[in-house]
Amino acid sequence: MPEFLQQLLNGLSLGAIYALIALGYTMVYGVLRFINFAHSDVFMAGAFIGYYLARLVPTDTLFGGLAVLAGAMLGCAVLGIVIERFAYRPLRGAPTLNVLITAIGVSLLLEYSGQVFFGAAPRTFPPIFPERIFTLAGVVVSSNELAVILVAATLMVALQFIVHRTRIGTAMRALSLNPEAAQLVGINNNVVISFTFGLGSALAAAGGILYAMNFPSIDPLMGVMPGLKAFVAAVLGGIGSIPGAALGGLVLGTVETFVGGSALSTYKDAIAFAVLILILLFRPGGLLGKSTVEKV
Amino acid sequence: MRFLPKPHLFLLAALAAAFGISHFSDRIDPYYLDVMTGVGINVILAVSLNLVTGYTGQFSLGHAGFMSVGAYLSAAVTMFLGPALLGDSGGTALQQGLLFLGALVVGGTAAALTGLLVGAPSLRLKGDYLALVTLGFGEIIRVTFQNIDVLGGALGLNGIPPYTTIFWVLAFAAITVFVVLCLVHSTYGRGFLATRDDEIAAEAVGLDTTHYKIVAFVVGAFFAGVAGGLYGHFKMTITPSGFDFTKSIEIVVMVILGGMGNTIGVILAAVLLTLLPEFLRPVAEYRMVIYSLLLIVLMIARPQGLFNFRFGRRGRV
User: Is the pTM of this model over 0.90?
Assistant: First the structure.
C-alpha cells in the first residue's frame, strides 16, 4: 500500500506539470484552432530563464523561489506574444498545414538557437525552494513535490477565475465560440489572441520551473518529450477544454509513473503515444470534450 | 496535366545512366561518390514523402520511422541470412547483388506493412492530429527497436556489409521517381489529388478517400524502407536514435522547400539540402537554425515552395 501511495504521489506531481503545459495547448487551440508546436520550447525557455534568474535572488527562501517563478512566467509571456505576432499572425486565415509547418519551424528555431546560445550539454538546475523531505504513513514526501502540486493548483484556480470571471476571459470564450461574431460585438481579436498566448506561455514557464525542480537537469531539447506528452494530455482531456487539460495531465502523469515502476518500464516513453492513438481512435473528442461533425 | 510522353523510356535511360556511372565509379573521387550516395538516398526519401504529403495532402512526421524499419530488416537479412545463403566464400558479386536486392525488397515490404498498420487507423484523422499521431508512431517504432536485443538495442547494429553502391542508389532513385510520377498521373492517381484538394468534395463524388490515403502512405513507406536499407548498407552502422524526429523533419523540409506535389522541385531541394551542409561545414552548428528559419520564412512568404515555377497556378498545400 505505501508503494502504491508513493507512486500515486509521484504520478500526481508529474501530472500537475503536464496539466500546466496542456492548458497552454488547449487555450491556443480554443482561440486559433491549431496546435502550437512551439509551446514545448517555451516550456524549455521558462526553465532556462529560471536558471539564470536563480543566480540573482537569495536562494533557499520561499520569496526567492516565488520571484524566480514570477520572472520566468513574465519572460515567457513576452516570448509567447512575440512568437504569435511575428510567426503566426501573418498566417491568419492560411491553410492549416501552413500554420502547422510554421509552428514546427518556430519550435525547431527555439531548440537549435538554444543549443547555439546555451550549449547542448545539460546543466544542473539550482534548488530554488528550500527542500525538506519527510515520511508520512510510509510514503517519502519531498516538499518539492508538494510545492509542484500546490503551485499548479493555485495557477489552475487563477486561470479558471480569469477565463470565467473577467472581461478578457469572456472575450476569450467568445472568440473560441465564433471569431467573426466576436469581432462584430466589438472584441479586438488580435488583443485577445495575444493575451491567450501570453497566458498559456506563462503557465508553460511555471511548468518548466516546476519540472526542473524535480528533474534538475535542463538542456535545450528538454521540452520535446514533456511537451508531446502534455499535448497528449490535452487531447486525452478533450482539446479546447480547460478542465479537460487538467484532468488529462493528472491521468497521464499517474499512468506513466505506474508503468515506469512496472516491468514495462523501458516502454515508458511509448505509453503516452499509445494512449493518444487509442483515444483518437475510440473517443476523438477526449474525456471531457464534445465531438463535432465537420460541416462544409 | 503535363507528363513525359514515354515514361518507360526515361526509366530505362536513367537505369542505363546509373549503370554507366557505376562502371566509372573507380575513377571518381570517393568523397564525391559518398556525397552522391547521400543525395540519392535523400531523393528517394523526399520523393516518397512527397507522394504522401505533396500529392495526397497528408502531413506525416513519421517517415524516418519507416526508414528505420527498412534499415533494420534489410540489415538483418544480409547479416543473419546472408552468411547462410552465400557460404564461407562470401559468394560472387552477382550473388551478393541478388541478396542485397532481396534484402531491400524485404526491408521495403516490412516498412510498407508498418505503413499499413500505422495508416489504417490514423489516416482517418486530419492535419494537426495526423502529424502528431505519425510522430507518435515514429517514436513507438524507435522505442521498440531500442528494446530488441537481437538488433543491438539502444546501441544499434554494427558491421552491416557495405553493399550499397552508387548503382543501387541511382537505380532506386530512378524507380522511385518513375513509380510516383506514373501513379500520380494515372487515372487512379487523380484520387490522390482529389483527396488533397478537397476531401469533402472527393467523398461527395464517391471516392473512398481513406483508401487513397492508405495507398499513398503504404507506397511512400515502401520506398522509405528501401532508402533505409540503402542507408544502412552505406553507413554500415545504424542506431535507433539516428531515425528520430529530426530526421523526419529534414525530409519534410525537402518536400516543402521543393514545393509540395512538385516532384522535380522536391528532387532539386533534396539535392540542394544534402549538398548544403557539405559547403557549410564551418557553420555546421547553425544548420538546424537555418532550416527552421527557412521553414518559417517560406511558409509566410512563399508557401508554394522555392522551386515551384508553375506560374498562373497558385501553389496549394
Answer: no
Q: What is the pLDDT of residue B194?
A: 92
Interface test with A, best of B61, B137, B289 (most A CBs within 10 A): B289
Question: Looking at the complex, does the CB of residue B121 fall below 8 Å from at least one CB of chain A?
Answer: yes
**Domain B7-301 bears CATH identifier 1.10.3470:** yes
- Helix (H), strand (E), coil (C) string for chain B: CCCCCCHHHHHHHHHHHHHHHHHCHHHCCHHHHHHHHHHHHHHHHHHHHHHHHHHCCCCCCCHHHHHHHHHHHHHHHHHHHHHHHHCCCCCCHHHHHHHHHHHHHHHHHHHHHHHHHHHHHHCCCCHHHHHHHHHHHHHHHHHHHHCCHHHCHHHCECCCCCCCCHHHHHHHHHHHHHHHHHHHCCCCCHHHHHHHHCHHHHHHCCCCHHHHHHHHHHHHHHHHHHHHHHHHHHHCCECHHHHCHHHHHHHHHHHHHHCCCCHHHHHHHHHHHHHHHHHCHHHHHHHHHHHHHHHHHHHHHCCCCCCCCCCCCCCCC
Is the ipTM of this structure higher than 0.95?
Answer: no
| Residue ranges per structural domain of chain B | 7-301
Which of B249, B288, B317 is closest, CB to CB, to A104? B249
pLDDT tens by residue, B182-197: 898 888 889 999 998 8
Phi, psi of A139 (to 5 degrees): -105, 130
Over residues B6-17, the pLDDT tens digits come to 777 778 888 888
Least CB–CB distance from B286: residue in A96, A116, A272 = A116
- What are the Cα distances from residue B82, in Å, to B75, B99, B107, B169? 10, 7, 14, 20
- Report in angstroms the alpha-carbon separations of A95 from A101, A176, B57: 10, 18, 11
Give the pLDDT confidence of A103-152 residue by residue, as tens digits: 989 998 999 899 888 888 899 988 888 777 888 777 788 888 888 889 89
Local confidence band at B317 (pLDDT 50, 70, 90 cut-offs)? very low
Residue B57 touches chain A, beta carbons under 8 Å: yes
- Pull the grid cell for residue A172: 476569450
Q: For the segment A158-212, what is each residue's pLDDT rounded down to a tens digit?
A: 998 999 999 999 999 999 888 899 999 999 999 999 999 999 999 999 999 999 9
